[in-house]
Amino acid sequence: KQGNEKEVVVEALTSCSFSVFAFQPHYPQKIMNLRRDLTAFVTDIQTAADAKVVQKRTQLGEAKQKREELLEKDVKSSQEKFDEIASRWLIVSQKVILPDLQEALNKQQQLCAVLIQDKKKLINELQQELKLGDDSYVKHLRKNAEEIDLMIERMEDQIQILTQAYREELAQIEVRPALDQETNDLLRASESLRWVRSMCLTLESLAERRKKVEEYEEKIHKLRFKNAHNTKVLEMENNAKEQVCPNMELNCNNASCLFIFSSGKRMHIYTFTVMTLCFRDENNLQKLKNLYTKEQKEFTRHSRKLSENYKRQIQKYEHFAVADGKTFEEMWLMTDAEAKQLAERALLIDSVICKQLLGLSWERPHLASLELSGPSRPQELAGNSDSGPERQEENFFSDTQEKVKELLCNETDFLVETKVLKLLAPLENEEQTDMKLVTLLYVSSYSAHLCLFLKLNISSTTETKLEEERTTSVGRFSITLANKWFACLQDACASSDFGKAEETRATTNSGPELINPDHVLPALKTVTCFCLSCPSYLIPASQRDSSEHEAYWESLGNVVSEEKLKLWDAAERNLKQYHAVLMEISDLTLETDRLKQRNAELRMQLQQRLSSTVRLFLLTIFL
Amino acid sequence: PFSKHPLSHQGVVSSGTRSVPFSPSKGQRKMRRIIAENPNWSLVVVPSLSSMCLQSIVNNFEEKQIFEQLTPGQRDFIQEGLSPTLPLRVTANLIPDGVYWKRCCERRWDLCDVSRYGHSWRRMFFERHLENLIELFIPEVTEPKAVLDVLPFCKSYVRRLNVSQLLPPIKEPQGEKDGEENDLDLAIDSEHDEACAHHFDFGLVLRELTHLEELALVYRVKECGMNFEWKMFEMTKRDCESLAKALNVTFLQLFRLHQSNVEDKKCRLLVKHLLDHPSLRELDLSHNLIGNGGARAIGKLLARSKLEVLNVCDNKIGELGAKAIARALSRNSTLSSLNLRLNLVRDEGGAAIGEALRSNTTLHHLNLGGNDMTWRAASALSDVLIENKTLRSINLSCNNLGKVGGKALAEAMSHNTTLTELNVLLTEVDEQNASFVSEVVCANQRSEHKKQRKTGSIKYP
């Protein structure tokens, strides 16, 4: 029991101390050691208590064993004695004599007394033992209490030490954050700097990469475009050659025909090889095709836009040209009128001089130029007589002309590639025809370069031929074109114009309007002639009339002749002399006038003076 | 304290113009000050109407409870003002945990460590209140109603009951006469004894306490002085029966029964009712008289339940009991701590437990201190130490291991890296081996500490 009590207390204390230590998660080594060493003391005490308990248990066990032995012995001895007493009772019962009996009884009594004494002695001994045990228990309790007090004291000390250690630790922890803060800030700054730097680097590299990618893309794009273009051109050429061949047979000799054929074949072979090459990387081709169609669409859109833009520009130019012309005409008229007026005046002066000064008869000089009144007049005068009827004709057949042109183009559709037709589909009717014409020309073996150039030019000439044809190249081209055509038509149509007309009729039967067969040939001719001739009215204004106008203006300027001028000079001189004399005369007259006046004044003064002296005299007289 | 006619007194009224600085922004508004006749009077003393209302609420709280509809500040005021003597039926569920319950606790007890009660003053109050009621309950004198009446209020707050004494019934003066008579009839005596000497019946209480998690009982009388009797320090058979039945009903996790002279029979009875307990995690039957029979029952319990901590220190468990426990241990997969300190396990039992640890992977702590073991058990255990990687601490103190045992342990420790505690004090192990063992243990502790720092979680035993 003694040990038990202490045991429990110790346990409670240790558990308590453990619970104190059991909540901070991280400790430095010092506190770890402290904890271990300090608690070791407590655990040591616990083991010591255990040992004591064990010892006590063994002691108690031994004591118990001893007691049991003692009791057993006692039981044995008392049993013997009791047996003895019991056996003696028989003897006692046999005794008949009273004194004997008395004696025996006494003996018995004595024996019993001894037995009881023994028992009492034993009881005393046990009681003493118990008392001793009690005393020792009390002593133990006291000792335990003392020990517990001591232990509590020690534990308090320990707790103090630990709290001290914890406080130090806490102080360190409190100090540390400041340092940590600084280092952290530094670290963070450097880290961020590094990060920014690395970011810059990566950004730069990325930009470079992007640039490169763009470059490569551009290159690839260019290459693709070039490839596509080349293949297309080659194909077109080949096709054209092949298609042209049968047509050309008509008007080309065999040799040229053969040459063309061979070249066509060669081209065919070439295109074939090209095609095979292209076929090799079909994917690439497919891509290129896609790209091409895209580009095509883009291009058509762009070209339409450009043409619209161009049209607008042309309109603007036209408008400006008209306005300029108007202002020019007005200016012309104005200056002309002024000049004429001046001339008239000069003539008038001349006549006056001649008639009045010199007394000569004056004739009005004949000057045609004085009758002119507009800038166009001299042109008309110098204009080509050929253009007149042609223009009329042109006007007359303009509708038919258009139709014929269309027809011609539609008829020759078979010569034109379907691709080109497709391309032309979105364009306007007139533009289409022009384009077809171009392709036809192209077909008739013109160099590809020129053709492309022409194509570009002509497509934009559709409605604004006037302006376009001013450029000499186009003019030249149109002439050559006309020649070619003329030759063709001469061969094809003129020889069998009836057949041609028939054919035309047949082809145009389906159309709503029939072209008069009589008009066909002239129209054709006009078309060609129109192309052939370079009408004078197309000559620019600056070139048109510079010399004539010069002459005109010269004539105007020379209304008064050189001799007349000399005459005029002489007259002027004379007049000047005359004028000087007259001036002198006028001066003199003025002088005389002034003198006359002076004279008059003096006379007056004299008169007055005289009259005053007389009066004085009279006064004096009177006085 | 007000003067009825302020003008009659000298200097009573100060016109507002003089007190303009009081509110310079509203200088136009005239202010009036009334100064009391009594020079000691000040405006601070006058309570505001709201506080007076609150005070009246506090005063009449028992009749009419106005609490829920108040603002938090007013609630605080009421908690500060309420009397701790109010009947629990009024306050138990109405007043939240906080100032009021703190006041209640501090009024009744000097030492109030709220951290032991989950930082809840209300829980502390109710637990200690109920403990007091049970500890002072005298069977057949105190009305059971006194305890039962409180239960409805405290049943949702009581998590732990730590009963440090249970009073026996008061012996009637005629008991002595009974005793004399009993000499004549032993049968009657035992029956009578059983009938009258039982303690508080826990069946009534535990049935109600649905939130109870920990229950610690000691069948003893504190400060008995010269009235000491052995009977005061043991539970009767009937106590045991009622307690066992009560335990079967509740959902507690920890059950502790100290110093109550629990013998094999009672132990078996208790264990029988705990066998299929769904939630019990910790069983503590230390400082009793459990022998081999009880140990066998405990072994059965180990095999069937999910116990994590078993403490049977300071009992009388011998070799056979230890073997039974060892057998259960080899099959059990939940127990993490086993305390067999101050028993009589001896070599055979120690060896059996060592053998069981070969196949066990859950036990972290083992205490075999003071078990009269020798070097044989030590060598058996040291064999296990080489293989086992889950054991964290072993206590072999107060055993006569001798030099041989020490040597065996030292050798085993040189192969072990997980053990962080090995107590070989007072085992007659020679200095060299003891110091070696402690060195290895220190190294293990350090590595363990580092590991825990890395993972960031530290568990302390």
From TrEMBL, chain A:
Its localization reads: Cytoplasm, Cytoskeleton, Flagellum axoneme
- What this protein is called in its record is Dynein regulatory complex protein 1
Similarity remark: Belongs to the DRC1 family.
Dynein regulatory complex protein 1/2 N-terminal domain: which residues? 48-148
Record keyword Nucleotide-binding present? no
Q: What does this protein do?
A: Component of the nexin-dynein regulatory complex (N-DRC) a key regulator of ciliary/flagellar motility which maintains the alignment and integrity of the distal axoneme and regulates microtubule sliding in motile axonemes. Plays a critical role in the assembly of N-DRC and also stabilizes the assembly of multiple inner dynein arms and radial spokes. Coassembles with CCDC65/DRC2 to form a central scaffold needed for assembly of the N-DRC and its attachment to the outer doublet microtubules.
Q: Which GO terms describe its cellular component?
A: axonemal dynein complex
Which key words are in the record?
Cell projection, Cilium, Coiled coil, Flagellum
- What top-level branch of life does the organism fall under? Eukaryota
- Coiled-coil segments: 105-172
- The UniProt entry lists the main location of this chain as cytoplasm
Known InterPro entries for this protein?
DRC1/2_N, DRC1/DRC2, DRC1_C
UniProt region (Disordered), positions on chain:
371-396
Which biological processes are named by the entry's GO terms? axonemal dynein complex assembly; cilium-dependent cell motility; regulation of cilium movement
All copies of the Dynein regulatory complex protein 1 C-terminal domain together span 551-608
Automatic annotation (TrEMBL), chain B:
The answer to whether the entry has keyword DNA damage is: no
Q: Which PANTHER family match?
A: DYNEIN REGULATORY COMPLEX SUBUNIT 5, YNEIN REGULATORY COMPLEX SUBUNIT 5
Keywords associated with the record: Cytoplasm, Cytoskeleton
Q: Where is this region: Disordered?
A: 1-26
Query: Taxonomic lineage of this organism?
Result: Eukaryota, Metazoa, Chordata, Craniata, Vertebrata
Question: What is this protein identified as?
Answer: T-complex-associated-testis-expressed 1
Organism source for this protein? Answer: Kryptolebias marmoratus
What InterPro entries is this protein classified in?
DRC5, Leu-rich_rpt, LRR_dom_sf
Query: Any keyword Cytoplasm?
Result: yes
**Location within or outside the cell:** Cytoplasm, Cytoskeleton
Q: What GO CC terms are in its UniProt record?
A: cytoskeleton
Q: Where is the composition biased (Polar residues)?
A: 11-26
Q: Pfam families under this entry?
A: LRR_6
